[in-house]
Specification:
Blueprint: E1 2-5, H1 8-14, E2 20-22, H2 30-40, E3 60-64, E4 67-68, H3 80-83, E5 89-93
Parallel strand pairs: 1-5
Antiparallel strand pairs: 1-2, 3-4, 3-5
Length: 98
């Protein structure tokens, strides 16, 4: 099982508390995690990535094993610690301003 940590506003929208667990049978990539997440929680479609292009929304970041993987190609394999569920995959809202 893949563990995903969502920001508070997306947990509220999906009506979940704490981490989300996803079962993914194929390669563990950012794309497969987001596909599974949106499949299980359709109300999240369009909040993390664009409906049409499936590109990450500008103020959303992805972290795997404390590394920002937001700008990696979406089909890049995630670390084994994510694939085994030892570490969670984080989806976070970026902070901007000054």
């Amino acid at each position: 099982m893949i563990r995903v940590v969502l920001p508070h506003h997306l947990r509220t929208l999906a009506r979940v508390d704490g981490e989300v667990e996803l079962k993914i049978d194929n390669s563990i990539t950012v794309q497969s995690v987001l596909d599974a997440l949106e499949g299980k929680y359709p109300m999240l479609r369009g909040t993390i990535r664009d409906h049409v292009t499936l590109k990450r929304r500008p103020f959303v970041r992805f972290f795997a094993c404390e590394q920002d993987v937001s700008h990696e190609p979406s089909d890049t394999l995630l670390p084994d610690a994510i694939a085994t569920g030892a570490e969670p995959f984080f989806i976070m809202g970026a902070i901007a301003g000054g």
